[in-house]
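#onboarding

Welcome to the new folks! Below is a worked example of what a typical request in this channel looks like: someone posts a single protein sequence, and someone else replies with the predicted structure as tokens. Don't worry about understanding the tokens yet, we'll cover that in week two.

Example request:
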Amino acid sequence: MARDPIPVWALRAVWLVQPVVLGPVLADGLHDLEGRTFLSVALWALWGLGLLAALVPRPVTLTALRIGGPAAAALAVWAATAVEDTALAVAGLVGGFVLAVLCLWPAVGDACVDGASYGDEQRFLLRAPGPVVLALGPLAWALAVAGVVAGPVLLASGDTAVGVAACVAGLPVAAATVRALHHLHRRWVVLVPAGFVLHDHLALADPTLLPRASLASVGPAPAGSEALDLTQAARGLALQVRCREPHDLRPASRDAAEVVVTEAFLCAPARPDAVLAEARRRRLPGTAGSD
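Example response:
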């Protein structure tokens, strides 16, 4: 199997020890703030929810992890600038950034989307579109975190009027951006006994199944490939899926009746090597070791 459990267990372990690694520097940073009791309780609650998300891999918990992990790193940076103890600051920074890296690790993403799979199938997360990685994703993350945090922090500090206004304005924005980020985690390649499935609402109106008998090959996309590009400008290695005969696809466009006929297309899984390894194990046509 192409699953890699080590990053998932590493994430669980690092999240579990955050109260020891990141907790002291946060406690020191919160010491002189108004509403520190409320903020401390909120941080404990968020830590518990994050640990639960790490223990129960699903697409929705992947969204929580990929918002919460970088948020922990941002908290570590803030706390490190607010305390005088260098050892506490360094420990908090290391803990926060290791947590963020693990939350964004491709194998963790695959484990979470595969947690919702059925029977003898395996799902592999698709990489986010290039513009999302470079600009829109970080902006959406910042809006989600700010929308959730700003209002309660202001209320805890005693600024009721501004805090209520921040909640009214920020929480709907946070909900919308979290939903947008979650949609990125509902895009995947699925290898099933019947063949190869591409499930990508950004590229296709409907998931498309290529039966085993219709597959000619699955492999790294050659430079200058003229196959239909369904990668959404994702950066990194793409896979080229070639059909034995023309295959009908419905692009995700305003024209619901539009159909594109193609003999090959490109997709961009986060771990193309893992997809190819599992395809070989399943002996899909056109992969090394297949019939």
